């Protein structure tokens, strides 16, 4: 194991940075920079000299010394040593800052990457894509500089292979060998040398594809050509609720009927499957009854010695694993564990790839935010009633408190609903302002107090022995709920709203909140940690400008020398394979105007006849979609019609299977839907996808001087990014052909967004003629398409 004494240290940097943050300047005069910190000198009114270390990235400060005499230059190394031991130190506690250009020679790894893409992969059926190689080279360069990059990679670039090759070369080629020695001080050099790369994605489908398709095939090819000596290894990380708990399984079986026992039988035994992802025969209720539940798993558990979940954790936390694959929420949960001093969920890692990065903000809001549903506290109260005896005075008191908890929860949500401003009954809003008056504040205070009283009053003596484990888990959940409620009482730094959710016939009210300074939190907790990070997606910029993405994620706080961005355009031949139709007949969008909706229906009918079906109509409003769908349904079109609900994807599967239908969609269809081939040959975008106002956007608007600035800085860039996402549903492979139709009058030639829209989308031929659409299909589709 290497120690601090035998690690190389570079020279202390004495040059004052040109753009030293205000957070550092306010502490006094710059002396030097070391270990990711500035040392600042300040003389007090009494003549004392105060020396403060300020983290160059986060701005956190710590006073290191107070002296009567001014610090002399020969004592600077001693002060640098104090910085190295400080909890606010920068990227590494062992290495003093180096310029990004002062890095190990990565030319050998670049040559290997070039050989893989230009010589090896083509031998196995992978065509050479220049932008794919360029992206891999970019990622290698960023990794070697321990930087952060926004790497936009449009459809067809081959970004997954690009970042996998760059990541495996970084890890197996030990590109950051020296830096890794000091980043995790308590870890041995042997462990540090083999730390994995984390790949975080939004979708389960991509995680499965990486582990079961991409990595095994890449491993086989690279071993065949001698690039690597041992197979690449990867594992998908999931929350504990995805796995079977031995103790809960046995308890569930004991109380189950014969039919349920038969369904669970294949999952009993040390060699039986225990990942619930493949347990299709089990109902959701069964899965919830046997999964590893919330709270902490104790080593003292009677089933610990044969727990398949514990064994699984030991295997997947092996530091020699090449890739740890996870979703955004799990990755952020691990990060929050580290920041809060809790045991990490993932092993220490040396590099992070955030794929589907356009969804990372939503995940961050979910993980940094808090939620309280209208059913959560009543369900906890029912649990407390179930396991608490009513045969003693103390037990009766607990029952009384649980009933009060239910009552206060109901009153809180009744008041929040009563405070919602009047809205149009046809509006699509799901988020409403959460208005906290004296009454709602009083209910929050009562809930927090009652929850704390229950935790204190619910002693073991009031609980039946068989329910003690149930009691501890319920009280843990109640304690977590009490913390969230207490946070809502101090909400000056929160954006709060009431959300209406529907799952089938079940309606739920959810009180939600996210921190106003989410970007700053992400910078402090993630971007400033000194680990190379690549954020990649097909849509991260508006007109090749990444400003909006940087601002929402807090990347605008990262020093320019560490932050880069690049955009790889799609290699597809859009000029020949894609036609952009812009309507001249639909009036200005007003989704409350029946005449406007009728004009939309008329235009859709004309276009669908010209394309012979094979069409999807993309709305920004479920309500408008429903009305237009009903209008066209009455006209008995020649093509089967399907309508997607908010959380219902069965219509999408039916549309794919039909091959010649008309799909009406909104919400999730704007991104992440893949329908290659002729089934989707006409994409109709009814309205430019400007975001609907909600409490989050209302708060953001207050950060800008006026509406025009907010529109230019936020609304238009977000609309263009969303438009690119929608457009990307049409052409999924090199041989796909199709028409994208935009019905919004603001997209017409000479209108407000025409030019910016054309620059944002791939270059393709533009028309306003329905006959041109008909001719395009006739020229490019086979005869079977029209049958």
Summarize the entry for a quick read.
By secondary structure, this protein is an alpha/beta fold. 42% of the residues lie in helices and 15% in strands.
Describe the structure.
It is built from 28 helices and 22 strands. A hairpin with a 2-residue loop joins strand 12 (494-503) and strand 13 (506-515). The chain has 5 domains: 4-85, no CATH class; 107-233 and 531-568, no CATH class; 240-317, no CATH class; 371-515; 574-786, Rossmann fold. With 787 residues, the protein is α/β, with parallel strands linked by helices. It is 42% helix and 15% strand.
Question: Topology, pairings included?
Answer:
Layout: H1 22-25, E1 29-34, E2 37-43, E3 49-55, E4 61-67, H2 76-85, H3 107-120, H4 130-144, E5 148-153, H5 159-172, H6 177-183, H7 189-192, E6 197-201, H8 204-224, E7 234-236, H9 246-255, H10 258-264, H11 284-290, H12 308-316, E8 323-327, H13 328-339, E9 351-354, H14 360-368, E10 370-373, H15 376-387, H16 393-418, E11 431-433, H17 438-457, H18 468-489, E12 494-503, E13 506-515, H19 518-525, E14 533-537, H20 547-553, E15 563-568, H21 574-577, E16 578-582, H22 594-611, E17 615-618, H23 622-633, E18 641-643, H24 650-658, E19 662-665, E20 682-685, H25 695-701, H26 707-727, E21 738-742, H27 754-760, E22 765-767, H28 770-780
Parallel strand pairs: 5-14, 5-15, 6-8, 6-9, 7-8, 9-14, 16-21, 16-22, 17-19, 17-20, 18-19, 20-21
Antiparallel strand pairs: 1-2, 2-3, 3-4, 10-13, 11-12, 12-13
């Amino acid at each position: 194991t290497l120690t601090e004494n035998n690690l190389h240290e570079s020279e202390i940097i004495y040059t004052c940075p040109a753009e030293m943050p205000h957070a550092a300047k306010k502490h006094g005069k710059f002396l030097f920079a070391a270990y990711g910190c500035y040392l600042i000198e300040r003389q007090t009114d009494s003549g004392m000299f105060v020396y403060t270390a300020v983290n160059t990235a986060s701005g956190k400060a710590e006073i290191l010394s107070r002296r009567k005499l001014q610090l002399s230059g020969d004592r600077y190394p001693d002060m640098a040593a104090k910085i190295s031991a400080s909890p606010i130190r920068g990227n590494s506690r062992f290495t003093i800052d180096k310029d990004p250009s002062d890095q190990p020679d990565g030319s050998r790894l670049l040559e290997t990457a070039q050989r893989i893409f230009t010589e090896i992969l083509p031998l196995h059926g992978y065509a050479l894509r220049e932008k794919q190689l360029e992206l891999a080279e970019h990622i290698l360069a960023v990794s070697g500089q321990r930087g952060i990059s926004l790497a936009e990679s449009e459809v067809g670039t081959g970004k997954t292979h690009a970042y996998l090759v760059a990541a495996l070369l970084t890890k197996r080629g030990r590109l950051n060998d020296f830096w890794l020695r000091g980043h995790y001080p308590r870890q041995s050099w042997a462990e540090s040398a083999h730390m994995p790369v984390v790949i975080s994605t939004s979708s389960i489908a991509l995680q499965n594809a990486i582990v079961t398709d991409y990595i095994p095939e890449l491993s086989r090819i690279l071993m065949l050509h001698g690039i690597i000596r041992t197979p690449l290894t990867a594992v998908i990380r999931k929350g504990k609720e995805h796995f079977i708990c031995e103790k809960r399984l046995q308890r569930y079986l004991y109380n189950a009927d014969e039919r349920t026992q038969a369904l669970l039988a294949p999952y009993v035994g040390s060699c039986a499957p225990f990942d619930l992802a493949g347990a299709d025969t089990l109902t959701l209720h069964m899965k919830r009854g046997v999964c590893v539940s919330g709270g902490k798993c104790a080593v003292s558990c009677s089933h610990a010695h044969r727990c398949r979940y514990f064994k699984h954790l030991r295997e997947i936390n092996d530091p020699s694993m090449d890739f740890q694959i996870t979703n955004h929420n799990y990755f952020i949960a691990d990060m929050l564990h580290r920041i809060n001093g809790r045991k990490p969920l993932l092993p220490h890692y040396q590099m992070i790839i955030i794929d589907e990065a356009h969804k990372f903000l939503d995940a961050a809001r979910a993980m940094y935010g808090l939620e309280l549903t209208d059913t959560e506290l009543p369900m906890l109260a029912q649990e407390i009633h179930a396991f608490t005896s009513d045969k003693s005075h103390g037990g009766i008191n607990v029952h009384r408190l649980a009933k009060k908890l239910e009552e206060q929860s109901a009153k809180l949500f009744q008041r929040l609903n009563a405070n919602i401003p009047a809205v149009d009954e046809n509006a699509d809003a799901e988020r409403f302002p959460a208005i906290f008056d004296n009454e709602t504040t009083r209910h929050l205070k009562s809930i927090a107090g009652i929850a704390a009283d229950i935790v204190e009053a619910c002693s073991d003596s009031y609980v039946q022995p068989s329910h003690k484990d149930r009691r501890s888990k319920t009280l843990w959940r109640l304690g977590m709920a009490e913390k969230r409620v207490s946070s809502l009482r101090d909400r000056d730094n929160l954006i709060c709203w009431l959300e209406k959710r529907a799952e089938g016939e079940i309606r739920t009210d959810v009180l939600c909140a996210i921190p106003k300074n989410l970007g700053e939190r992400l910078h402090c907790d993630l971007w400033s940690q000194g680990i190379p990070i690549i954020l990649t997606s097909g849509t991260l910029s508006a007109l090749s400008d990444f400003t909006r993405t940087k601002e929402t994620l807090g990347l605008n706080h990262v020093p320019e020398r560490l932050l880069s961005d690049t955009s790889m355009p799609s290699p597809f031949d859009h000029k020949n394979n894609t036609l952009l139709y812009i309507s001249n007949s639909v009036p200005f969008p007003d989704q409350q105007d029946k005449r406007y909706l009728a004009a939309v229906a008329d235009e859709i009918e004309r276009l669908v006849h010209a394309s012979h079906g094979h069409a999807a109509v993309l709305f920004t409003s479920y309500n408008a979609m429903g009305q237009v769908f009903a209008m066209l349904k009455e006209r008995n079109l020649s093509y089967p019609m399907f309508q997607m609900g908010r959380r219902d994807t069965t219509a999408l599967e039916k549309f794919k299977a039909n091959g010649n239908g008309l799909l009406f969609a909104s919400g999730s269809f704007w991104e992440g839907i893949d329908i290659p081939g002729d089934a989707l040959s006409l994409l109709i975008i009814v309205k430019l996808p400007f975001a609907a106002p909600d409490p989050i956007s209302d708060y953001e608007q207050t950060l800008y001087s006026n509406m025009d600035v907010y529109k230019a800085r936020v609304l238009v860039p977000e609309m263009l990014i969303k438009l690119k996402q929608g457009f990307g549903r049409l052409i999924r492979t090199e041989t796909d052909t199709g028409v994208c139709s935009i019905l919004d009058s603001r997209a017409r030639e000479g209108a407000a967004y025409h030019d910016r829209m054309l620059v944002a989308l791939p270059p393709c031929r533009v028309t306003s003629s329905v006959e041109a659409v008909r001719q395009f299909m006739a020229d490019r589709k086979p005869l079977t398409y029209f049958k």
